[in-house]
Design goal:
The complex is a heterotrimer. By secondary structure, chain A is α+β, with helices and mostly antiparallel strands. Chain A has nine helices and eleven strands. By secondary structure, chain C is an alpha+beta fold. In chain C, α6 (267-277) packs across α9 (328-341). The longest helix of chain C is centred in the middle third of the chain and has 28 residues, at 152-179. The chains are: A alpha+beta, B mainly alpha, C alpha+beta. Chains in contact: A-B, A-C, B-C.
Chain lengths: 325, 468, 342
């Protein structure tokens, strides 16, 4: 796990000016990382190495204190916390039939997270339409606001963050699987054996937001990639969707983007009659669906079937077993 | 008519026989159980090193035989304590010879049942996380709490009434047993010499435990059912589950008690103490609970089946006509209707009949636990093909090892612990001798309502037709 | 959705007051000869209902029936774009009144966009509204009913009561053993009461332990879903970082949607794009700072020959990229990008 340089209670570290040797990262960003470290939180995964280097620089550095630097802890910045959401436009989802590949959201998610076979954290289900034909429903973890899985976990290994994301701490999970029984969306996956992951996944620094590397006997699921968004990019599935059907957004600022444009999230939902899966259960998912069956990208509802998912690195997963769902 | 001391001498001689006499059959039986258990341990070592991959549980049916076994054994544990406490509280005098066995079954079944939770865990080495990070909001934690409480309480409740008997063993057997057991008896007999102060203290302890253990026992299986009914799954999401589980627990517990009694009675010739009357009464209890189970099941299935919300149709189809129909109808016909029928007719109201009913009930209740766990998980939640589950050899081995452990612990207890509440039986006998003729208890239990008149000829008949 | 407009009705009044002290923004904004003057508050607070008035006129004549929209500049997931937050049609006086709720935390770079009628492209009218830093959380996820006393305390009380009785019984048993010690025989028998004491100790120990587990539970597992509450138990909440509003890095892109993006002509820029195209970023993170799996590349790559060799080889579990997948020319661009980073 990443280190915690300071505790919340410790007096604020005098901020020093750091010569920034990096292209594309301004001083403010770097100082922000330091600030985040100072509140005792886990540093951003994407900057772990950077963090280590910079923190020691700061401690050793003789430079003068820059009081005006825009930094400080998250607390002083704002008390408002992002409220992540996902809005999936079914009218634009053709299950990647037009691409001739397995759904690319699933593939990107697998590559990005090294999700062990057969875990499709975002799985594209094909459901019957009432009037015949089918629709495709990309289904990530629904990130319920009233999450049945969090309520039943005996050790608090699965928890809701203030950002509204449900995460799993695989370092704490005892593998009792009651959360899998409790999830009404079939969105939880268990590492029944030694998970099949490629060797490079083992190099990763574990973090509940990143779930890499997978370990045996623990539960996994879609983590909503909040750290990816904080790092300035969009979740793997959103980036990968060739039809821009997946919107990722924040209800606190009330915006959502599919990588092409940004819109007002609530307006998008209400204008397109958005709904949520199994709303009657009262789980209050954070994932919204805009009704459709791929008609906006020219899919015929009678055109059934999608390509099966493949795990690109599965041959390099040494000593691992695979199983079916 | 015996004199009192003769009667008591014979009682002590007969009940201490398993402790003193060890036949080669005992060793063969012990070796067999140890072998079966060892196989289970070996299979578990495979699971330990390979993960739950060696089972047939997968993401969609993520609980299977282990959880079934957990529920089943915790159910069996209700045999004892609850029955013994209820009978003791209601001063049903015929209870004296069966309470000890019932209480022993409780403690043993609880140990076996609780270990299946560990076996089912994906990361058993992290069990202490349950205490480090335990959340009281989780049904699993409720289970941990309830089972810990119940285990502690039932061990005390097994132990407290056993102290006078252990003292008897200490006084009578010390010269006849090895040094280990002599030390054991001397230690656990707690200096018991039936001093008035001791009798008062012990009586108080027993009364407290008797009263407190009834709500604990009821809560335990209710909480076990909540593991299921606190989810949103069709088939599990029902408020009657607590009642169904508690009733089923007592039901299967009584059946197991009958079986243990029948076997020990036959091996150690305890016909004088485990009389047909005991089997008959327990048989009535079985029939009464079968009736109650039918009622609860109708409640459960009719209220959800009438409406058939969402995935309800699939749940019903798989249970009533498709994959699990055989198990389900065996449970209904074999496990619920047959025991009632057997107790209804004079011809079958024998020890043999009661034992047959008990066997059927135990099998049926295992099936019931199995199909509750598996069918609940099998209902598809999203548009996908329903999964299938058939336990692997590893799972069966570990399950059978659980049964073996259950029998093994009872077998070992036979060598060490008094299997009868000798002092209670003596007290009871004294009372009966004092007020001849022996009255047959009227309406000792709700089973009496079946219209079976309890007349002495009936009891005699039973004795004739009973297992020899 | 459980978003409740927070105190907005109370605030709309204040904002209207501010509108009275408008900055007089006006001038020819729309190229098609349409002039616009805007009335908007100078500064707003987060969560406030804001009223923006736009008056459109063409050669002094009010424009009626024109559709205008209000947008602001937002950034999310690295993407920066204008978001339409309100729209209106002008009345006979040429006035369009647009009301929106201030959700963004940054300075509002606002625009009024002319939508129609007419297809002539017209330049949007730009202005800025200052946003007061801070503000309270607007979106809450709230579920559940809180009933006094029907909570963990009750559970602890019940469990404690039960365990008091169990412990009491165990203590009674220990006393049974003690009562059995007769004075003159004490030496012979004294050893045989310890089991009762042990039992009593075990019962009390378990009882206390259980209550401790229960009492600790809410602390160890605070309901983390409520912003604000996590701060009370910050020590327990160290498993994930939080994203605060107005707190994002510039977008560097991840996953190439447009091939032409790699032909900017600037080798460094091309390399940046290419590095994503070939999923370097999947392991090494955007900008090559090092990520989930891969180490930092910026400033770590050494000579170009060395770099090419490593990429073709795939050291330490990294996939090897052949000449066919990634040409030397492309590698040169990526190298330049990483070098430039140093």
């Amino acid at each position: 796990m990443s280190k915690r340089p300071e505790t919340a209670e410790s007096p604020p570290e005098p901020r020093r000016e750091v010569p920034i040797p990096l292209n594309g990262v301004d001083r403010r960003t770097v100082l922000k990382y330091i600030g985040l470290g100072a509140i005792g939180a886990v540093p951003l995964v994407a900057s772990t190495q950077l963090m280590d280097g910079l923190v020691s620089d700061v401690v050793a550095g003789p430079e003068s204190v820059d009081e005006t630097a825009q930094s400080g802890s998250a607390k002083t910045q704002s008390t408002r916390v992002r409220q992540w959401t996902m809005i999936i436009d079914l009218a634009r989802c053709d299950g990647c039939q037009s691409q001739g590949t397995a759904p690319q959201c699933t593939l990107a998610c697998i590559e990005g997270h090294f999700a062990p076979q057969p875990m499709e954290w975002i799985e594209v289900y094909e459901a019957e339409l009432a009037g015949g034909g089918t629709q495709f429903i990309p289904t990530p973890c629904q990130q319920c606001e009233n999450p049945p899985c969090v309520k039943v976990c005996p050790v608090g290994a699965t928890f809701s963050t203030p950002e509204g994301v449900v995460l799993i701490d695989q370092d704490r999970c005892i593998g009792c699987r009651i959360c899998m029984a409790a999830c009404p969306y079939d969105r939880r996956f268990f590492n029944w054996g030694t998970p099949p992951i490629p060797p490079e996944a083992l190099l990763a620094d574990y973090n509940p937001e990143q779930q890499t590397p997978a370990t045996r006997g623990t539960v996994m699921k879609c983590d909503f990639c909040p750290e990816t968004v904080r790092g300035g990019t969009l979740p793997f599935c959103v980036q990968a969707c060739p039809q821009d059907a997946i919107w990722y957004g924040d209800f606190e600022e009330d915006i959502a983007t599919n990588g092409r444009q940004i819109v007002k999230a609530t307006e998008l939902i209400s204008e397109r009659n958005g709904y949520r899966l199994k709303e009657h259960l009262g789980t209050q998912p954070r994932v919204y669906y805009l009704p459709g069956h791929g008609e906006d990208v020219g899919r015929d509802p009678e055109d059934e079937g999608r390509m099966p998912t493949e795990w690109p690195w599965i041959e390099r997963a040494e000593g691992a077993v695979t199983w079916t769902r | 008519m015996d004199t009192m001391s003769n009667w008591h001498e014979r009682l002590v001689r007969k009940t201490t026989r398993p402790t003193l006499v060890t036949t080669y059959r005992y060793w063969v039986w012990l070796a067999f159980l140890v072998a079966v258990f060892a196989n289970g341990v070996f299979q578990y070592s495979k699971q330990w090193s390979n993960g739950l991959y060696v089972t047939d549980m997968r993401d969609r049916i993520s609980w299977g035989l282990y959880i079934t076994a957990f529920v089943f054994f915790i159910g069996i544990s209700h045999a004892g304590t609850l029955i013994s406490a209820i009978l003791r509280a209601s001063k049903a005098t015929w209870r004296a010879p069966i309470t000890r066995m019932a209480e022993l079954i409780t403690a043993v079944a609880l140990i076996v049942g609780a270990s299946f939770v560990l076996i089912d865990m994906g990361r058993p080495e992290r069990i202490f996380n349950v205490f480090r990070y335990g959340r009281w909001q989780s049904p699993i934690m409720w289970d941990v709490m309830a089972i810990t409480t119940y285990l502690t309480a039932s061990v005390i409740y097994l132990y407290a009434p056993m102290i006078p008997d252990l003292a008897l063993y200490r006084d009578r057997l010390s010269n006849k047993v090895g040094v280990a057991r002599r030390f054991f008896y001397e230690t656990v007999a707690l200096n018991w010499r039936a001093l008035p102060s001791q009798v008062r203290l012990l009586g108080k302890a027993i009364t407290i435990m008797m009263l407190i253990i009834m709500p604990i026992a009821v809560s335990v299986h209710t909480v076990v059912s909540w593991i299921f009914s606190m989810t949103l799954r069709v088939g599990w999401n029902t408020s009657i589950f607590g009642v169904l589980f508690v009733a089923g627990a007592i039901f299967s517990g009584v059946a197991t008690l009958i079986l243990v009694m029948a076997v020990l009675r036959r091996i150690y010739h305890w016909e004088e103490y485990l009389t047909p009357k005991h089997f008959l009464y327990l048989g009535y209890l079985l029939a009464a609970f079968a009736g109650f189970m039918i009622y609860v099941n109708i409640n459960e299935f009719l209220t959800s089946g009438f409406k058939l919300e969402e995935e309800g149709e699939f749940a019903f189809r798989q249970l009533f006509v498709d994959d699990f129909a055989l198990m389900f109808w065996f449970y209904i016909i074999g496990g619920l209707l047959t025991p009632i029928t057997l107790m209804l007719f004079r011809r079958t109201r024998t020890i043999a009949g009661v034992v047959v009913a008990a066997v059927l009930v135990d099998i049926a209740m295992f099936f019931e636990r199995y199909f509750i766990v598996v069918t609940g998980l099998r209902v598809p939640l999203m548009p996908y093909e329903p999964a299938s589950y058939s336990p692997t050899f590893v799972e069966w081995s570990i399950f059978v090892a659980g049964i073996a452990l259950f029998l093994l612990l009872i077998t070992i207890a036979l060598k060490v612990l008094p299997m009868f509440a000798i002092w209670e039986m003596t007290e009871e006998h004294e009372r009966n001798v004092a007020r001849e003729p022996i009255p047959i208890l009227q309406g000792a239990h709700e089973g009496g309502g079946d219209g079976a008149p309890e007349s002495p000829p009936d009891v005699e008949r039973l004795a004739e037709g009973g297992v020899s | 959705m459980s978003y409740r407009p927070s105190r907005s009705t109370a605030r709309i009044a204040t904002s209207v007051m501010i509108v009275a002290t408008i900055l007089g923004l006006s001038g020819p904004a729309f190229a098609a000869g349409i002039g616009i003057s805007v009335g908007a508050p100078e500064s707003v607070a987060v969560g406030q209902q804001v009223e923006v008035k736009a008056v459109l006129s063409e050669d002094g004549v009010p424009v009626e029936g024109a559709e205008v929209a209000l947008t602001y500049k937002a950034t999310l997931g690295g993407k920066t774009d204008r978001v339409e937050i309100a729209s209106a049609t002008t009345d006979e006086t040429g006035t369009a009144v647009m009301v929106y709720e201030q959700r963004a935390n940054d300075n509002g770079e606002m625009q009024i966009v002319y939508l129609g009628p007419g297809t002539d492209p017209v330049d949007p009218f730009e202005f800025t509204i200052a946003v007061e830093k801070g503000g309270v959380q607007l979106y809450h996820s709230e579920s559940g009913v809180k009933i006094p006393f029907v909570n963990g305390t009750l559970v602890i009380l019940v469990i404690a009561t039960v365990w008091v009785f169990i412990s009491l019984s165990a203590v009674l048993l220990a006393r049974v053993g003690k009562a059995g010690i007769v004075e003159d025989e004490a030496s012979a028998e004294s050893g045989s009461m310890w089991i009762g004491a042990l039992l009593a100790f075990a019962a009390i120990f378990t009882a206390v332990g259980m209550v401790i587990v229960f009492v600790r539970a809410p602390l160890a597992n605070t309901d983390l879903s409520h912003p604000g509450e996590y701060e009370t138990h910050i020590d327990e909440y160290d498993r994930t970082e939080l994203a605060h509003v107005g707190d994002l890095d510039p977008y560097v892109g991840f996953g190439l949607k447009d091939e032409s993006a790699a032909q900017t002509g600037d080798p460094v820029e091309d390399g940046k794009v290419l590095s994503f195209e070939y999923a370097c970023a999947a392991c090494h993170a955007p900008s090559g700072l090092g990520g989930v799996v891969g180490p930092a590349l910026i400033g770590e790559i050494g000579s170009f020959n060395n770099f090419v060799e490593e990429v073709r080889d795939g050291p330490k579990g990294m996939p090897a990229y052949s000449e066919a997948t990634l040409s030397d020319a492309d590698l040169q661009k990526i190298y330049d990008f990483l070098e430039a980073g140093r």
